[in-house]
Amino acid sequence: MLAAAAVVHAQFEDLVARATGKPQPMLRAASIPLREVTQADLDDIRERFRDITARPFEQAHLQADRSPAFAADLERMVAEFETNAEALSASLSRRPVSGSSEVEGPTDAAKALIAREKLAAPAGSEEFAAVVAAIRAGMKEGYERVEALNDGRAIPRLPTATPKRSASSITLRDAVDQYVAFKKVTPKTLSEIELSLTTFEALNGNRRLSAFGINDFRTFAKWMSEQKVGGATVGSVHRTMSLSTGRKRIGFLGSAIKLAIDRGTFDGPNPASGINLSAWFPKPDKSVMPSKRPFTVGELNRIFQHPWFTGCQSATDTHSPGDLRLNGMEYWGPIVALYTGMRASELGGLQLSEIFLDGDHPHIVVRDNKFRRTKGSYARNVPILDALMRLGFREYVERIRASGAERLFPDWKPRNEKVFDKANAAWSNSSLMRAFNRTVIKKMLGDILPTDARQEVTFHNLRSSFKTMLTVSDFNLNQNIINDVVGHAKSDLDARYVGSISIEATYKAIHHLDYGNLTIPVLNRP
User: Fold this and answer.
1) Within a domain: residue 273?
2) Taking residues 443-461, what's their average pLDDT?
3) 131 and 108 in contact (C-beta within 8 Å)?
């Protein structure tokens, strides 16, 4: 059973990777402990068996009253029910069932349920007996409902009707479904939430929220801390799951429970809060997982000696030196990232209509558009530095505009380019990103970066370099200006009293800044 679960989990991870275009952590097999049976489990089991016993008859009665064509099916079901009445009664009253019967009794059902939900209820134990009793009670209530339907003493429920659930009966999955619908999360976030939920359910089951306690989430934390991830792609290091990943996964579930509490659909405490995850997740081994950092100017100078920037062999062999000067995404993508601090996901979907070169304050507007969302849907204005203009950025923009393209980089395709789904366009996992991270950096910096550790610098660290340049400039920039330009959240106090800083102020503060001693090969102007 555990092996099957591992296969299902691996398939789910693969689906997530396909949907997001981003490799997901690969979970290795780990021991999943049995969980204790609680009173809430027993109540839930009773309700479940009551509903699954009566539901077929609910549907049959509705169909028979909807059309005479279905009346024969209902008559057959009622006849079978009456034929098996003695066997059902014997099964539920613990009497031996005479003759052969296809009726599944509570004991057999309990064995299957205990194995499926990994309950600590071995045969012969009090826990096993309690599960059998809960199933028997649920089946009895269900059969009583069936008899009432057959006798005309009850009306069938609509299949689309959602039973009213008390604040003590909502399950964790109910809470997560409510959270996902309310927040309108992106497909990527939805995949991460579903991964968190299904993993948690594999350990603890999908029970009522009132049945969960902090120890269930500690069990989840412990299990995650024992997983091995990574090592599946080039440059990925085999390692234990990180503390930040653990916080994210428990955080998703905790946020769903908090929303249920805030909306009054759950009236208990939040069992996912107040957990000290550092008690399970050790600090990463820096020799294997060095911290991400900005590029140094020396490293940038080496990067810009790659054939993408100096001249390559051909359009299909862009990593070998030659006379062909590239004038598209390979050349301009890293340069614009370095001089604007924009994320790859922001650059890939950047529209030409969001670039303003004329006027006193040339700038780029970063906002949600039809090609992509921005992080947190946070809009900002990014001044275009004089240094970027000196490299020929205006000429490049005007050339692309003349071509009729909508995006600044029409040759930059998302990994899932079949559709431009702005909520799921994997710009940051495109062929450009993979080539820059795995080939350009490796080729130009391979002799100075460790070979047996996670890569310290990637395309995203061009953004880190930009932030560093603003921070360490000789002009002592106000932190709120830096936050506005790079898209970082302000403190609550500054957000309230400072608000958004105008492009006039941010442009004046940073347009003249540049990286000292940085040399970028300039393209020949037309």
Assistant:
1) yes
2) 88
3) no
